[in-house]
Amino acid sequence: MTLLATPTFAQTAAPTQAVEAEPFGPAAAFSFDALAEKAAELARAPYAATPATYDKVLEDVTYTEHWKIMFKQAKSLMVNDSPVQFFHLGTYFRQPVKIYDVQDGQAREVVYHRDYFDMPEDSPAMAMGDDAGFAGFRVMRPDFKTDWISFLGGSYFRTDGALHQYGQSARALALDTGLATPEEFPRFTEFYIEHPKEGSESLIVNALLDSPSVSGAYRIAMTNEDGKGQVMDVQSRLFFRDGVERLGVAPLTSMFWYSESNRFASADWRPEVHDTDGLMMISGTGEQIWRPLNNPDRVMASSFADQNPQGFGLMQRDRNFENYQDDGVQFHKRPSVWIEPTSDWGNGAVQLVELPTNDEVFDNIVAFWNPEQKPEAGTEMRFDYRMHWGVDAPVEMPLARTTATRIGEGGHPGNPRPLDQHKLLVEFTGEPLEGLGLDEGVEAHITLPKGAELVEEYTTPVQGKDDTWRVQFDIKTTLPTADLRVYLSDADGTPLTETWMGQIHPQQIAYWRQH
Length: 515
Hints:
- The protein has 515 residues and is mainly β.
- The chain has two domains: 389 residues, Beta-galactosidase, Chain A, domain 5 (Distorted Sandwich), CATH 2.70.98.10; 114 residues, Immunoglobulins (Immunoglobulin-like), CATH 2.60.40.10.
- Helices cover 6% and strands 43% of the residues.
- The longest helix has 12 residues.
- The N and C termini lie far apart (63 Å).
């Protein structure tokens, strides 16, 4: 294993000389099967959390102080042409992780030393010794200008997608998310960064997972292609110490504050603020589903039962800068993430948990697969899947897609607006709708819950857009939550569009109307 040496940042942006690095731990045989057996052994013993040795010192390594600590480019660990850099501990990342370099089936630990980092002389972290450890790591592009993936905190990781802009995050596992009981957050405790075999472009990260209820081993083979994003093949083996009420497999975490559908919920100057705007699913039977995201007034959990789903993901469909107007955080460039199962997932449900938020700094959206079979103590489960981080889902979309969801006051202008009536407009765009007119049998299929009444409905093509139709309707209801379903078909009943599965909260809308 080598570390890069470079004269200075000013002289060159790339390494010019390799030097032997010290110190490293002794070499030991490594394989993913051995890591899985280690996870199984952990699960057979009581849980022991990783201690935070410098807990008091880290209270002062605040968010601001943490990002003043910079990893030295000359110390980057080279894995083929990928420079790997490490994160320092901080107040939000107090438990160290072990990081190993794996070559030819042999693993050696990269041992923390303060010399890996540049930090201000008055940094609180200066009080930490060489037993501190690392918080995580990131992989840089060969020119060292930007990173494309990072692992930091819990079992979280994220990439910058196809457009070089970080947004939503993924994690290895979610436990009891959205329940009345506290959520459990497993964490990666060890990383084994494996050098790819000759001819392979994949960077392989093996990781040991641990928490009070479960231990696990993950193998993640990653490729990065500029302009297209990242593809990650994930293998997971899970060993349970205890039963879990709600197991979240392949969880995605995002932020949704407001869009055109709930613009009334914010006085912010920007038209829309969100990392992603919808949950997309393709069921095991092939039904294409779009569920626009909400910012509800209470914690909401939605479940979409399925068997062996073809895929699901949190997507940022709206790529128009004009709809965000934020040239700083670049919401229109945030990556979409598509989860594609590559093993038999059986029966279960895609679940979506939405939490209320009043700011963009909170991740309030979680989506994951929840298997029907609940894990019990002593059981083992395996889930394999492929993750696509990019502009869109890498699947064929023969049906027209949802391009807007709009909610407003029911009734008609110039007349009293009934508080229990709400107007919805769903817009579909795509080739199956191209050139169709009102006389060609396009039919809207609208499903409402019990306790909701369809007052009126109009289905029309949008003037000036040859491939776009709108379904506009009022519903009258006093339900706290109404789940709705809409799609368009031709005269024979054949679907022309994906299925829109929306949800509205009439009491929340009424509150904002009165304030």
